[in-house]
Amino acid sequence: MIWSFLFAHFLVDFVLQSKETAENKLDWKNTLKHCLWIFGVTLIIVLLTGFRDWKVVPVVLTIAITHGFIDFLKAKIENKLDFKWSWLLFAVDQLLHVTIIFVSIIIFYPDLNTGYTFKISTIFFNENIIKIFSFLILITFGGCYFTAKVCRVFEPVERNTDTSLSKAGRYIGILERLIVTASILIGRYEIIGFLIAAKSIIRHPEKDDKKFAEYFLIGTFTSFIWAAFFTFLFIKL
Questions:
Q1: 17: domain range?
Q2: In this structure, what are the phi and psi dihedrals at residue 21, rounded to the nearest 5 degrees?
Q3: Are residue 88 and residue 142 in the same domain, yes or no?
């Protein structure tokens, strides 16, 4: 049952929603239109998949109404923050939508409560899952702080940062450590070589700035070593 609701949600939010609706959630007409799409599509899909109980209607209605409130609130916060944390707000927005779907189904179909609660607790409170997330946070965000501390000692006094994106280095570091970790876990070490080559090509125009080139290499290798060390530690533990 839950997959019918989730499918309808993803279909409306990611496929059927127009760009105009997605970017103008502060306009109540757009938000209302989106809620009607959520209600209509979800009801059709749920009915087609065989759930013809009368309780389906209040479940779908609850999901549609709360969806509109969440979207409006997200748009308001996003606008106040000048879209700087849009990626995080998007993740929280989707998490809230999915949570509302689960809660609504459990409230109107209490017989499913035990099964879903057990599955959710098994997923999120499993020791292996906690271990995975702990190492992911350590490798990605922990690596940011460690690499920054190491690089601070060697940072060139004069650097032209006018052409750099704000906090781009932080996000590049997180992504490269995730790639290094994934490469080690699947045993494809050549991907790390391709990653180093790609970074070198991108930084090629700055090769004449010897100080920055050395600073860049220190940061890259520090980041890689951090990711590799904790990935191997994760495998051993």
A1: 2-124
A2: -65, -45
A3: no
